[in-house]
């Protein structure tokens, strides 16, 4: 390659920038890849900079002419063109000192030579290498700009393709000026009749005012503190303006409209304009131009993970078309189809992971436990109450699962008091009859102790499990008793152990663990559930939750589990009367609580916080406990329960409330699960607006567990009508599933996710509330896995790669 020689002389920044690109082009052998998309891609921004800097018109025109025809030239002609331009630019003129315009102040910088060459080389090697190239591969983005973009989690070209707009401004409707109406969003095409910059506030601010005419009328457009616009839009220039029609002194105006000259491609006007998430130093126009360059180059070249027959049967856009249209849509219907396609892909990957997990679990070998109908009948006869139809169905599900030589993987969901523990007891009894052990793990010692008492009351009579072989292991268990339990589990004399995380300690080993029950399973992490399972040889698993789970989440978050639902409440349970009170009615609520105490009942008072906080303006349990005891309920015995108490202090508080020694229990949300006090008839929740509806429903389930009329009083922190309207849904329904659906719609899936975050945080467009999308993706995922369980066929190679990226750590279980 011959060396580039240029005559010395003064230059401008624009001339310097183009010189660097042209020299890089020469180093690359004139392949038109010194700039992503070709040298002609920089002409628009370069021309603007060159004119701002005062380069001679004939030099600018020479550059424009030579680079526009450059792609069509052969190698030798390209060499001569580059040399000609380098010579021309060498003496292009002195730089001007005028500042860059505010809107384009963060124009791309020329990348460093080493970074640029490496990035362009990577982009040239293959599509994959191009998409994984750093942002400095884009002409004009240097290390400083790339660092700024990293604040938006943008590091590669692929990240830009997935940097989806947060909303869209529809400027696709063109109107003539005489037909404009106040308040509408429109695009106007016209000519700049006059434009001026006026100082304001003593010269500290500048107002740009332009009069735009289109032959039917004129309209004034204004911009604050952007004086450079007057130079970009000289009188006589044709322009497109887009924005909201405003009014000033009775005349229609466009304030701060988007604008573009009519002699260039419209990205910011005359179309449905994408609006992207931004960060300091990044403008809407700049990021729009950068993303457009990458979309134009790469979108339609993206390999589609879905084979054409699958995609067409599902009625989906091709992937490349969807990516192109989600960024720069032709119209609203196509935008909706693009959003649907990309959301579908996310949900498909999620469902593939969920269904493969389920398939992998089903493929394990375990031990089956079988009992005859007489055993089931005997168990039911020994119970002190009649089972509901839902309980009978769930027991049959468990019995069938336990009889298989593959481990059960079932979710049992039912509201507080629906009888989940009895269903679990049947499973424990069946496994005990087969000579194996069971473990029940609960998130709190309170709940573990309650299960212990329930199972010790049920199992000896109904399942012939000796009471001394049923043990409780929690953090507060004395060392000597813990050692006794540990030995009993190892030699098999302890048949059933109920406990908390203490069950997971290394020295706890089972002789033959056949059945594991995890209650309120969303409170446990993946590793904790796996640790319990690994204490046996593929034991059967039952996970239970009192949180009603919407169907959309049952197919996603818990889609790898078989499902049993207890909707029917046991006979004799009365609905809990629920009322939302204003903060000013708190005294009325306290008087009602006192009346119930005087009638011999008990009450819960729930607070969002343990102690008062400067950051959160809400009442707290510790401070309110002291105030209530002294000023509101003097002479009434009260107890305090919260998560910062020691296990011994919690047990003492609960024992006193359970026995009736204390009439009022002041508590935090620790009572959400596991506390069964039949004599409690009032649940008063302070700061109720800080809880989700599903959680409030859990609180409500703590009362009404006897034949006494019971009440749930919800007192929000404020009189906010919108927030209190949400709470009033509690007054209108006792249906936990309906409330859970409302919670999901209003607050998102956070309360239901618990520790099951893997994969779900990757959803950018798909919503866990979109049941039709979920069902469609699950159906397609099942069909794909039915044909190709390992995603090993050639037509599934791209899909397999996407799945591996989406589920990078799918090893073992998630459920």
Q: How would you summarize this macromolecular structure in one to three sentences?
A:
With 815 residues, the chain is an alpha/beta fold. The chain is built from 30 helices and 21 strands. It is elongated, with a radius of gyration of 35 Å.
Name some characteristics of this structure.
single chain; 815 residues; alpha/beta; OB fold (Dihydrolipoamide Acetyltransferase, E2P); Rossmann fold; seven-stranded parallel beta sheet; 30 helices; 21 strands; 15% strand
Query: Going by CATH, what is the homologous superfamily of the domain at 373-403 and 419-545?
Result: P-loop containing nucleotide triphosphate hydrolases
- Output the radius of gyration: 35 Å
Report strand %: 15-25%
Mean pLDDT: 82
CATH class of the domain at 373-403 and 419-545: Alpha Beta
Number of alpha- plus pi-helical segments = 30
- How does the helix and strand content classify structurally? alpha/beta
Q: Record the strand order, biggest sheet.
A: 11-12-10-13-14-9-15
Shape descriptor reads: elongated
Named CATH topology of the domain at 373-403 and 419-545: Rossmann fold
Structure summary, number of beta strands = 21
Determine the N-to-C terminus distance.
62 Å
Helix content: 40-55%
The low-pLDDT segments are: 1-10, 92-125, 811-815
From the coordinates shown, what is the CATH architecture of the domain at 373-403 and 419-545? 3-Layer(aba) Sandwich
The largest β sheet comes out as:
7 strands, parallel
